[in-house]
Write a structure and sequence with these properties.
There is one protein chain. By secondary structure, the protein is an alpha+beta fold. It folds into two domains: 12-186, Glutamine Phosphoribosylpyrophosphate, subunit 1, domain 1 (4-Layer Sandwich), CATH 3.60.20.10; 200-268, no CATH class. Helices cover 24% and strands 25% of the residues. The protein contains six helices and 14 strands. The chain has a six-stranded antiparallel β-sheet with strand order 2-3-1-9-8-10, covered by helices on one side. Helix 1 (71-84) packs antiparallel against helix 2 (86-93). It is globular. It starts with 11 loop residues before the first strand and ends in a 7-residue tail after the last helix.
Length: 275
């Protein structure tokens, strides 16, 4: 595959056996008895010890209530807690923001934990021990047939899990997946909201800390940050939050066509582009 043909940018594929048809711009790392292939341009953090391994694939930042761990610190801490204090392991996950996936395990198991909204998507094969960031990365290995949809809208069960291919499924937010057994387990929420008794001022203070730490991190690391907005209340709120950095960010929005479109209600009232 040519270097310029980056069909699976910032992605990965993970398996318990060596794979073929891997993009040329992917690196290969053998961890424990597993093969981890990943885009060489992606950020990741990997740690191994005598108990197991952990891969944090993607962009992430830890912002705790009382502390802020570096990427390597949070990676090592998560692996230790996974074996020694699973509840605290889950508590630490609550304070990791970004677009990432965590793969953790040992000789006998490998589990994947998505970020809060599964923005770093993960797909897996139902009949092989393979998972990947892009469904076609798995299809390239397994040659799964496309699902044959009828002319009428098919009845979908577990629609969030479905993909266009047989025997390939998607993981969903707030659930971990065990690669070998294909078993799901919900890990969030796992208790009543422990912040419900905070005052309004305390909630805003906590939120402001989380937001500013993340914003400072990304604006300090990248010089081409782009913000998507529409004309709704969420966009107004987001603009207010980013006001201190308004000149450091580029904005874009959506329209039904180029220029002003007065042919429909949707076009007439679509938001204007902010320059």
């Amino acid at each position: 595959m040519a270097e310029k043909s980056r069909y699976y940018p910032y992605g990965y594929i993970f398996s318990d056996k060596k794979l073929n048809s891997i993009p040329d711009y992917y690196e290969t790392k053998i961890i424990n008895r597993y093969y981890y292939y990943y885009d060489k341009n992606v950020d990741n953090s990997i740690f191994e010890d005598n108990k197991g391994f952990i891969i944090m694939h993607g962009e992430f930042i830890h912002v705790g209530i009382k502390d802020q761990l570096s990427k390597q610190e949070v990676t090592e801490k998560l692996l230790h807690l996974y074996h020694e204090d699973y509840i605290e392991f889950l508590n630490v996950l609550d304070f990791i923001a970004g677009r990432y996936v965590i793969i953790i395990g040992d000789e006998n198991e490998a589990l994947v934990y998505p970020d809060a909204t599964n923005t770093r998507s993960t797909y897996y094969s139902e009949d092989q021990n393979i998972m990947a960031s892009h469904v076609f990365l798995i299809r390239d290995q397994t040659e799964n047939k496309r699902v044959e949809f009828s002319k009428e809208l098919p009845e979908l069960t577990n629609g969030l899990l479905s993909t266009p291919f047989e025997k390939i499924k998607s993981i969903v937010p707030n659930y971990s997946l065990e690669l070998f057994s294909k078993r799901y387990k919900r890990f969030f929420p796992r208790e009543n909201n422990k912040y419900v008794d905070l005052s309004e001022e305390e909630r805003f203070t906590l939120f402001e800390r989380f937001w500013k730490k993340q914003l400072d991190f990304y604006l300090g690391k990248y010089k081409n940050c782009i913000f998507s907005i529409t004309g709704g209340g969420d966009s107004r709120f987001s603009l207010a939050l980013i006001k201190e950095h308004i000149n450091e960010v580029q904005f874009f929005t959506y329209s039904t066509k180029e220029g002003t479109d007065n042919s429909s209600y949707a076009g007439k009232y679509s938001p204007l582009i902010i320059k």
